[in-house]
Amino acid sequence: MPDTRPxxxxxxxxxxxxxxxxxxxxxxxxxxxxxxLAYTEDSEWRNRDVFLTGRAEIVAFLRAKWERELxxxxxxxxxxxxxxxxxxxxxxxxxxxxxxxYRSYGNENWEFxxxxxxxxxxxxxxxxxxxxxxRRVLPxxxxxxxx
Length: 147
Hints:
147 residues; alpha+beta; 6-stranded mixed beta sheet; 3 helices; 24% helix; 42% strand
């Protein structure tokens, strides 16, 4: 029996938004293995200038990303949806080992299989150096996550 990750296409406004919230929540755990389970075994990615295929490459990529992007915190916004596709805009904040904070902005295009697993993810991302005072993507109140 194949993995299923509801909600499954075709998407409605409600189910597309649930899919976006689930992705945001998973990515904010910074757990590469958990995040990778939302993708097909042979999922194709483009993230900036990096091209990946499959869960093993996704896990390795995310592990390296979160070793470099410390105290990562993400916010996603549903931009558009149709059938088996969702487009989102996002911003996330993180700092490097030297303590420099960044806000990374971008857009993602997602395509899902019939079981709700993402088979394609194409992300365009730009980074902006910010001060810690300029942060706006903060962990939830009472959370020990982040700085």
